[in-house]
């Protein structure tokens, strides 16, 4: 199973094609819309988000609302694209530090910024959210649930609270910055407001948790099929993400071995652990515990404090152009990372249980779970 995307930031459509999705799954456009809305609406985003209303449709691969096994083509129309006047807005021949502008122009022999920035823009993450939403809905049938939430913005860290996704989801839904710790969230809003006033931007961290995942997804046998590698690569490919941590990777690097690993015991036919330092992945495979991945994002590059750059045409120094911009993208990043986790887990599920039809996948899944039970290690 794979997907391809096309589309520009101010283009008429974003286009996604999923190939190899199992037949027989009912797709809900309302669910996709809900996730796209979560991506768009949060504190710290620019006025542009009100313009970028997402109109989503699936134009192939469905029969009577269910997948057929044929490629699924997802279209997101960019309804507000003309508001900026012309594609790329104010960007001309001055590359912005921190963006793809300069390396992209050099690599592809382009003389202006927009042909690069239009594609490099995080607008494309709308499509990854839509594709992830489709993946999430199939994972739900296998009792897999996941949530992305903000754990840090501008140096304000959330306290670790409940690990229950249901509890966390309720709290996150009430938070304008998608953070489960109300006190920290209030401070985050304050620092975003201050950054906006001073014309700056902020980075931070988000955590994605997935629960209900059976052990044995991914593999230890070959490097490019290792689940931790795939998850980290996929997460790093999201714009502005600069580091990815699985479980308590950073903390464990400073601890001794005995306190870093998760002791296990058998309890009535179940494998149990009291800790989850490994974040649900051992030897590049799921181990049955919750999967926990943390992403660290840099402050977005565009801000009113314009950094020095130069004009690619005149080769004269000048300041980086300012175009309407977000201040802090951590909340939407939580939604994007959740979608990315869903996709990678679904790929791993289909590799283990087949991807021609949901029925086949379900039968294989049940037989595997039965086998684990029989061995007394579910
Ligand atoms: C949801 C989202 C929205 C973003 N919005 C902006 C923005 O408005 N202005 C900006 O300069 N960067 C924004 N970024 C970050 C840039 O897209 C990103 O820094 C740039 O493409 C360079 O990629 P890199 O940071 O991965 O190196 C956004 C990132 C995300 C995830």
Tell me what you see in this structure.
With 378 residues, the protein is of the alpha+beta class. It has a single domain (2-374), classed as Chorismate synthase AroC (Chorismate synthase, AroC fold). 35% of the residues lie in helices and 21% in strands. It has helices at residues 29-40, 48-51, 101-108, 114-120, 125-140, 165-173, 182-197, 227-236, 249-252, 257-260, 330-353, 358-374, and strands spanning 2-7, 13-19, 54-60, 62-63, 66-67, 72-78, 145-153, 156-157, 204-211, 241-246, 264-267, 270-273, 281-282, 285-286, 291-297, 308-310, 317-319. Helix 1 crosses helix 5 (125-140), helix 1 runs antiparallel to helix 11 (330-353) and helix 11 crosses helix 12 (358-374). The protein binds flavin mononucleotide. Residues 46, 98-100, 120-122, 125, 238-240, 298, 300-302, 325-326, 329, 332-333 line the site of flavin mononucleotide.
Q: What ions, cofactors and ligands are bound? A: flavin mononucleotide
CATH class: Alpha Beta
Overall SS class: alpha+beta
Number of helices: 12
Q: List the domain count as a whole number.
A: 1
The CATH superfamily turns out to be Chorismate synthase AroC
Sheet with the most strands: spatial strand order: 8-7-9-15-10
Biggest sheet details = 5 strands, antiparallel
- Characterize the overall form: globular
């Amino acid at each position: 199973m794979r997907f391809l995307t096309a589309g520009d930031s101010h283009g008429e459509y974003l286009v996604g094609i999923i190939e190899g999705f199992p037949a027989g799954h009912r797709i809900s456009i309302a669910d996709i819309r809900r996730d796209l809305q979560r991506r768009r609406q949060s504190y710290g985003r620019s006025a542009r988000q009100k313009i970028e209303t997402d109109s989503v449709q699936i134009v192939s691969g469905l029969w009577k609302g269910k997948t057929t096994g044929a490629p699924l083509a997802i279209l997101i129309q960019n309804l507000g694209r003309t508001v900026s006047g012309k594609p790329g807005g104010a960007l001309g021949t001055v590359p912005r530090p921190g963006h793809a502008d300069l390396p992209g122009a050099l690599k592809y022999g382009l003389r202006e910024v927009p042909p690069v920035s239009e594609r490099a823009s995080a607008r494309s993450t709308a499509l990854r959210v839509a594709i992830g939403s489709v993946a999430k809905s199939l994972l739900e049938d296998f009792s897999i649930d996941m949530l992305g939430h903000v754990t840090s913005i501008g140096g304000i860290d959330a306290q670790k609270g409940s690990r229950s996704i249901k509890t966390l989801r309720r709290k996150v839904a009430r938070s304008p910055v998608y953070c489960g710790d109300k006190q920290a969230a209030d401070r985050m809003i304050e620092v975003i407001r201050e950054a906006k006033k001073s014309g700056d931007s902020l980075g931070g961290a988000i955590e994605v948790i997935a629960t209900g995942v059976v052990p044995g997804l991914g593999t230890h046998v070959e490097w490019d099929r290792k689940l931790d590698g795939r998850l980290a690569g996929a997460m790093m490919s999201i714009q502005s993400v600069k580091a990815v941590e699985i479980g308590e990777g950073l903390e464990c690097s400073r601890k001794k071995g005995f306190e870093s690993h998760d002791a296990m015991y058998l309890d009535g036919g179940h494998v149990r652990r009291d800790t989850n330092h490994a974040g649900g992945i051992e030897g590049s495979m799921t181990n049955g515990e919750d999967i926990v991945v943390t992403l660290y994002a840099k402050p977005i590059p565009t801000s009113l404090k314009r950094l020095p750059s130069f004009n690619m045409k005149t080769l004269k120094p000048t300041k980086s152009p300012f175009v309407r911009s977000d201040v802090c993208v951590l909340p939407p990043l939580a939604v994007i990372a959740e979608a990315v986790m869903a996709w990678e887990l679904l790929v791993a599920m289909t590799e283990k249980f087949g991807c021609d039809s949901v029925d086949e996948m379900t039968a294989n899944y049940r037989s595997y779970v039965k086998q684990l039970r029989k061995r007394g290690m579910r």
